[in-house]
Amino acid sequence: MDTKEYKRIFGIVLDSVGTGAAPDANKFDDVGSDTLGHVGEAYEGRLALPNLQKMGLSNLRGKAILGVPKVEIPIGYYGVMQEISAGKDSMDGHWEMMGLPVSKPLDTFPNGFPSELIKKIETFSDRKIIGNRPESGTKIIAELGEHQMETGDLIVYTSGDSVLQIAAHEDVIPLKELYKICEYARSLVNGPTYTIGRVITRPYVGPDKDHFTRTANRHDFTLAPIGQTDLDYLKSAQVHTIGIGKINDIFSGQGIDVGFHNESNMDGMDHVDKVMQEDFTGFCFINLVDFDAMYGHRRNPIGFGQALMDFDKRLGTVLKNLKDDDLLILTADHGNDPGFKGTDHTREQVPLLAYSPSMKSNGSLGIRKTFADFGATVLDNFNVSGNAVGTSFLKELMNTEEIK
Ligand SMILES: O=P(O)(O)O[C@H]1O[C@H](CO)[C@@H](O)[C@H]1O
Ligand SMILES: [Mn+2]
Ligand SMILES: [Mn+2]
């Protein structure tokens, strides 16, 4: 393989860490959302993110995050990316990053799923379905979990996203059975009648409604990518591809040589540290989902900020361990503003931070018109051609003028 520039690229997606309403936020009723901004405000100046800060996390914004002033000389390149996909879910965001924007909106079910679909799942599983409406996952298990423990019924719910989620107590409906039911549900919603982005298993444990907690046995059964993604192109060109966290699920394993499941953000960063010790030429794509699942959807800005600070510490180690021919890219797949109404994702611009110890220059990458610029840069680096969506910013990163 002909390596053009960096030997290894690490791309970390901080799931749901948006940086202000996107220009089309009005179409999503998300005007005024700003995940990072509102987390900073909730901390009243006590949010400390020294590593993200020196990469330019506030420099990429108009108004700095409270507690995280802009720095005079960021260590690398910073900017924002805008989304062109029709939806604002993880699948839309990640597929677009990898050169496959989702232009046709996927089906959503603000009034619950049609009875025809529900009946099929009931027949297959031989269990009754309860819930069947958009709801927060923790709320619906608090409400219906005890009933489920008595009856063995299945809790089915959705959100503003194209998702069919099935929650079940691990002691009542064994995991193996739950995965089978979800796999079956997946087979019903691959189009053309219903096209749903993700069927998600939501297992939980606990003795009663005040003590239910969801487990890391969550599994996302995602629609298989409708076409080739940059990961497929890389893999076909023998560039090694590694997925950490939800990445494997989001791409249905397509284009990924090795996948690791994360128990948590910190477990994800353990995987990153390990992979960084390996010698390979390729792309490691990482998703850290706790920001989203534990704090964004729960509208908990304090928890969100703590998760950012915990990540920032681990980022310090990554920055130290990066080699001259490594490139690190940080971004997000959508917003999920914990200071905003509702419990859904928010249509936001996402941060774009790029750093390599070998960088000779620094500066702004501006406003990228699509998330696909990320994947286009990875392809450009490894001399691989793809769907020709997105514009590479590799040249900017390789600028040889000294840092001012
Ligand atoms: O409320 P919980 O169960 O966390 O569900 C959320 O998680 C889904 C996937 O991110 C979103 O669509 C939203 O429904
Ligand atoms: Mn996401
Ligand atoms: Mn989410």
TrEMBL record:
Pathway: Carbohydrate degradation; 2-deoxy-D-ribose 1-phosphate degradation; D-glyceraldehyde 3-phosphate and acetaldehyde from 2-deoxy-alpha-D-ribose 1-phosphate: step 1/2. It is found in: Cytoplasm. GO terms for cellular component: cytosol. Binds 2 manganese ions. This is Phosphopentomutase. GO terms for biological process: 2-deoxyribose 1-phosphate catabolic process; 5-phosphoribose 1-diphosphate biosynthetic process; metabolic compound salvage; nucleotide metabolic process. Its main location: cytoplasm. Its EC number is 5.4.2.7. Belongs to the phosphopentomutase family. One of its GO terms (molecular function) is magnesium ion binding. Isomerase that catalyzes the conversion of deoxy-ribose 1-phosphate (dRib-1-P) and ribose 1-phosphate (Rib-1-P) to deoxy-ribose 5-phosphate (dRib-5-P) and ribose 5-phosphate (Rib-5-P), respectively. Mn(2+) 1 binds at D15, D333, H334. PANTHER family: PHOSPHOPENTOMUTASE. The gene is deoB. It catalyses: alpha-D-ribose 1-phosphate = D-ribose 5-phosphate; 2-deoxy-alpha-D-ribose 1-phosphate = 2-deoxy-D-ribose 5-phosphate. Pfam families: Metalloenzyme (PF01676). InterPro entries: Alkaline_phosphatase_core_sf, DeoB, Metalloenzyme, Phosphopentomutase_DeoB_cap_sf.
